[in-house]
Amino acid sequence: MDFADAHACLQKVEPLVQCLTNKVVTNFTANALLAAGASPAMLDTPEESEEFAQIAHGVLINIGTPSTEQYGGMRAAIAGAQGHTPWVLDPVAMGGPKLRSDFAREVVQQHPAAIRGNASEIIALNGGAGGRGTESTANVNDALAAAQELAKKTGAVVGVSGPKDLIVDANQHVLIEGGHPLLQKVTGTGCALGALCAAYLGAYDDPFVAVATAHAHASAAGSVAVRSASAPGSFAVAWLDALYELDGAAIANEVTIK
């Protein structure tokens, strides 16, 4: 898989990524995009989101802490993205509160280029049981069938993140092994991964490779970060540094593809 080509395209395009995301991770997500080589726009108002989605290279829809206004902004951004811009659905805590779950089931029918979540979120989005809040109670292998069904129903590339990451489309799937358990001890790494998917989709014309490279980049950065950090606070900083420092060849060397 050509991670180097996808990464080179990201650096060349410097994609503008519109992030409609949760308030817990806004700053961290913006910094992750900047470190990786993209340009963040944290714009989620109903009045501007549709217009901005038409000029962005990629759009992230993350339903972590939605308000009534943000739901309106998300719907507007999805409408603006149709036919113009690849967008990513991150169904945070899908299968928990009814309102967010209903919203995710509604918008997943509107042609996301990718869906990114943990195993429980992906299973729940396909009609199964959810996890415990934002935490997955299922493992990545458990989500394979649900991810394959979602990919076939929606046409999206589905990324399932965990100790290893599963990338699925209607015709193929791969497992990416890398990273470190400290990634689960830093709030925002998964949400930032959704934004990285939008960035790579906006820069590279093969959606499957784009989403796989985003996951590989994030995982590889985790593998590198733990060499200089042994606790969550320092790891978060080291992870951002690694996103910046890794090139395509280094990303490929830090992960295993199966």
Task: Please tell me about this protein's structure.
The chain has 258 residues and is an alpha/beta fold. It has a single domain, classed as 3-Layer(aba) Sandwich (UDP-N-acetylmuramoyl-L-alanine:D-glutamate ligase), CATH 3.40.1190. Helix content is 50%, strand content 15%. It contains eleven helices and nine strands. Strands 2-1-3-4-5-6-7-8-9 form a nine-stranded mixed sheet, with helices on both faces. Strand 1, helix 2 and strand 2 form a beta-alpha-beta unit. The longest helix has 19 residues, at 207-225. The N and C termini lie close together (11 Å). 57% of the residues are buried. It comes from Corynebacterium camporealensis. Pfam families: HK (PF02110). Pathway: Cofactor biosynthesis; thiamine diphosphate biosynthesis; 4-methyl-5-(2-phosphoethyl)-thiazole from 5-(2-hydroxyethyl)-4-methylthiazole: step 1/1. ATP binds at residues 116, 161.
Q: What form results from the Cα inertia axes?
A: globular
Helix content: 40-55%
Low-confidence stretches: none
Task: Give Rg in angstroms.
Answer: 16 Å
Overall SS class: alpha/beta
Cross-sheet strand order for the largest sheet? 2-1-3-4-5-6-7-8-9
Q: In angstroms, what separates the terminal alpha carbons?
A: 11 Å
| Highest-level CATH class | Alpha Beta
